[in-house]
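Predict structure. Input: Protein p34, 295 residues.
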Amino acid sequence: MSGTVRIAAGSILIGILVLGIKWLAYMVTGSVALYSDALESFVNVVTAIAALLAVRLSEQPADHNHPYGHHKVEYFSAVLAGALIMVAALLILREAWGAIQAPRTIEAPGLGLALAGVASVINALWSWLLVSRGRKLRSPALVADGEHLISDVITSVGVVIGIALAIYTGWAILDPALAGFVALNILWSGWRVIRDSLGGLMDEAVSDQELERIRGVIAQNAEGAIEAHDVRTRNAGRVTFIDFHLVVPAQMPVSDAHDICDRIERELKETVEGSLITIHVEPENKAKHSGVVVV
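Output follows.
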């Protein structure tokens, strides 16, 4: 089992634990804000399961029907996570509206707030692990899961503060109003996850800084060639696809051109983790002399 799969599986266990704590906090208090917090954790469990399935499938080797691999499935998982997050937000808004019309008294607030605080600490630690490891492992599913948990932590802290204010001031309407605020924040979080994932599904290129780094590696390791042009990149989960045209002297033996390609490919793989490189060799009459990496 890979490190990515282990972390994804751990997210399910952590999500169930946090959901149980938050649901208990809601049951002992009757707070709509804590209900919204617990419902968000339910979504966390569902998205963690989707992330695990996506990570396992993305690690499957390329086959006849998927010659470029299964890397993009992680983006579908992230889109699903974003959609579920937004559905949860709408359910919370409905509950909050009902409570605004008929405010409820919060019971056992001390115990409820303590439970919510414990759940927030667990989520904060796990979200940090998910984002840091997800970026290192180049896993969009893990990063999306971790970023949502960070949003969950922020809203949970807001819930605790809001409930404390509601108890202190005696304004019962603060509880459902806070739940509505949480729902709006969750809506934004869900949209952001979907937006970021769509970039991967649309074969978004690497950043300008990363592209310049790739061009530099090509230029420094293409001795013997004339130029490289039409350098293109795209991200697909943990894999970065790089392809370009390499122009060599017309009389250069095929074996020499192949050696140059091997040298460039080796250095690119060391520079860009998880890269897959395709190089099209062309004779010197195909040189473009503009908008290219000149070696």
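Strands lie at 227-236, 239-248, 275-283, 293-294.
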